[in-house]
Design brief:
mainly alpha
Length: about 160
């Protein structure tokens, strides 16, 4: 099981990182074409935007795995371990619930674009491909929230509240 987790983590890292890198490279390419060669490429703006958005949304799970999401520790660090566990369980359960709605409504949006077969303006990419990132990133983030929730539930509390 540990090998599978390592492979999935590597997939998350490379997938999100590659998309961000490609997006940034395309932005640089667009700037060079526009200001150095005076030959702007309309497709670059659209594709780079999609790459950066896809990379950012699929990278949410990576940020959660590495503990880089916003945290408010001022209260958390001052309460006993029992309440810290309760806060962790609550916040991760809330994250799972958020991901459920994110996947559900993202799927509804995705199905709308699937049915209508609308295409993007400049490049002509089917918009269902563009919006596929919403339920996909919701699944990836949801996996991390479930993993954190299970870890929080398994964690033993060393010192109970003594009042």
């Amino acid at each position: 099981m540990a090998k599978w987790r390592e492979r999935y983590a590597a997939f998350e890292d490379y997938f999100a990182g590659t998309l961000i890198a490609v997006g940034v490279f395309l932005i640089f390419y667009g700037v060079v074409c526009r200001y150095v060669f005076n030959s702007p490429k309309a497709w670059v703006d659209e594709i780079s935007t999609y790459c950066v958005v896809w990379g950012t949304l699929t990278g949410l799970g990576v940020a959660l795995r590495e503990g880089h999401h916003i945290q408010v520790d001022i209260l958390f660090d001052r309460v006993p371990p029992f309440f810290q566990k309760a806060f962790n369980v609550f916040s991760n359960a809330l994250g799972v619930l958020f991901c459920f709605f994110f996947i559900f409504f993202g799927g509804k949006l995705l199905s709308l674009y699937w049915v209508t077969q609308q295409k993007s303006t400049d490049v002509g990419i089917y918009l269902w491909i563009v919006y596929l990132v919403i339920p996909l990133s919701g699944l990836m983030l949801g996996f991390r929230f479930i993993d954190n929730l299970l870890s929080s539930l398994k964690k033993e509390v060393k010192a109970e509240w003594n009042g």
